């Protein structure tokens, strides 16, 4: 009789453990999801950036070299950070286009 109770208890503990593992895994993915980008971007490309700049920016900002010279930051990383903060509200909402435009501007 006690052996039967032990087996039943063992079965319930295994089910509980498996359920906790599944729930823990789901929770891990749910918490990590907001940290991931909405969609992965390719490596920034200067050529695509020049085309995107010409299409979206050049009509108002003809001289990109003058613009990048005025962006605050001691190095490319700081300038990239400043542009990443500014461009989403300035007609560069797409992550890939923005990365490409920044790569182009920094190449000047």
Characterise this structure.
With 108 residues, this protein is mostly helical. It folds into two domains: 2-35; 46-107. 68% of the residues lie in helices and 0% in strands. The protein has helices spanning 2-32, 46-56, 64-70, 76-86, 95-107. Helix 2 packs across helix 5 and helix 4 runs antiparallel to helix 5 (95-107). The longest helix has 31 residues, at 2-32. It is elongated. Mean pLDDT is 79; it is low at 35-39.
Provide the gyration radius in Å.
26 Å
Structural class: mainly alpha
Count of helical segments? Answer: 5
Largest sheet: none
Mean of residue pLDDT values: 79
Give the number of DSSP strands.
0
Strand content: under 5%
Overall geometric form:
elongated
Helix content: 55-70%
Order of helices and strands: HHHHH
| Low-pLDDT windows of residues | 35-39
Assembly of the depicted chains: single chain
Q: Report how far apart the termini are.
A: 83 Å
What's the number of domains?
2
Question: What's the quick description here?
Answer:
Residues 44-108 form the Cytochrome c domain. The chain has 2 domains: 2-35; 46-107.
